[in-house]
Design brief:
284 residues
Length: 284
Amino acid sequence: MFDAVTLKLNADPYILSALREDITSEDVSTNAVMPSRKEGEVDLIAKQDGILCGIDIFARVFHLLDESVRVNPFFRDGDEIHNKQKIAEISGDIRVLLSGERVALNYLQRMCGIATYTREAVKLLEGTNIRLLDTRKTTPNMRIFEKYAVKTGGGTNHRYNLSDGVMLKDNHIGAAGGGKEAIAMAKAYSPFVRKIEVETEDLAMVQDALDAGADIIMLDNMDHDTMKEAIRMIDHRAEIEVSGNVTKERIPSLLDLDIDFISSGALTHSAPILDISMKHLHAV
């Protein structure tokens, strides 16, 4: 759930930007058929099974247009919802309900889709000690919502942004002149409380990361046999993350690996939306 402070400081600017994108001057269609205020009610209906996520953001869209709009949800974020279930009732000025509908649903459908996909992926890891991580492969200006959806689905957030942690990728290593050099420079620059993660693509890079004292070693786009050899080399001297084109379909093939994390960009860049609609609008 988004608390009031998070909404006002971090979410509201993005929501307002989305509303400004959709209403540059006026809602011509709504003003044509509803020239003055009239109270109404509308139902929020699920059209697929899935995980609810983003009901507070859905409500916030309407509240930013008119604080008097009332959203009465019957489920909380993280709950399972099913096709044809009524998720919530929304009441208020019909003009606001119509003008905010698309933006509110865009957030809700996207967040529910990510939470649903994540929940399905996390279930594949049951019985293991492997945690599922997201990535920074998020939709621009949607990261706060998409990473929240991953958490709601049972996943774990990797670093939020570039200020949040040290991850040395292939181009950082190239810029520094090598893995050992990059790690040494990162240790000298960053506070001691921050772990240093290094992306590796082959066994030589794994060895460099080990020799330099990396805290987390990412095995990126390696074949299965190479990953097994890398894990043997690391021998619990660093935490291990597997990454690279990981979808939920691929997760079962990774379960025999003695690793700590699996990161998947697919959680945020490939999850389909969950079909949800506002229906049965009527005056009261």
